[in-house]
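Quick one: structure for this chain?
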Amino acid sequence: MFVRRVTTGYAGPPMILLPPFLPDSRGNRLAEYEVRQDRQTGQRRIYLCGPEEVAEQLRTFARCAPMPMTRAQSRQWTHRLSHDGPVSGRVRDALDQFKEVLVLRVRQPIDTGIALDFYKDPSSHHDPMQWSDTYAGSLIYRGKYCGNTAAEQELAERLARVIERHPTYAAADYVLVVPGHDQTRVSFGERLATTVAGLVNKPVVRVRALNLQRAQAKARQPGDPALADEFEVGDEVAGRVLIAVDDVWGHGDTMGAIAGKAKSAGANAFLALVGARRMRS
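Got it. Here's what it folds into:
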């Protein structure tokens, strides 16, 4: 864990100050942000207290540039970004959303990943086996395992709102439907993605599963190389930005395998969007 030792101007023993934000390798929310205007240049500065993934997204869709911080600023903020011109309501809305959703740690060929929440709430009980579902987790459970169509619809609507409020997701071309592990039936994730696509008025591209059956994601070992040969993505994705919608993120291997196929077919970017992130991966 990174700490700073502060001794200047203090007569007692060295104080250890924690950084303003301690990232979680599974996913993070933006803790806080502030927009300021430089009195001399008139340029806007966006200060963030949050993960690098949020700063990277701002650099992409808001055309922000990183700036150095003073020691005093780094005790409160993790990033300082310059922004030419006024910060639009669209950018502020995206920043507000980053305080609500989880921005996931992803690896290429996935470009960005967002989840509504973790599946479980660790603060609900001291025993992990007794953890309660988060609200997003409860929507998935009720929709997927209890056949509650209202819960399924609400989950789709919440995912659709993420797309609408995120400039990069809102500008995407297609919603990618991730096939379930059993191709003899339509999975919950497939239904969810199709509903989300309809809500945001985007065409659907269906990923083809090359086998009728594959092991469920939760039963696979992380980094299973066999996944690379499980899917096929058509060349209609060439030059396009894709949103792959699914219900749960575990290891991210399925999304990674599909993203690899999509990029091989010429896709420009692969954005993942899921209902919940598992606590264990």
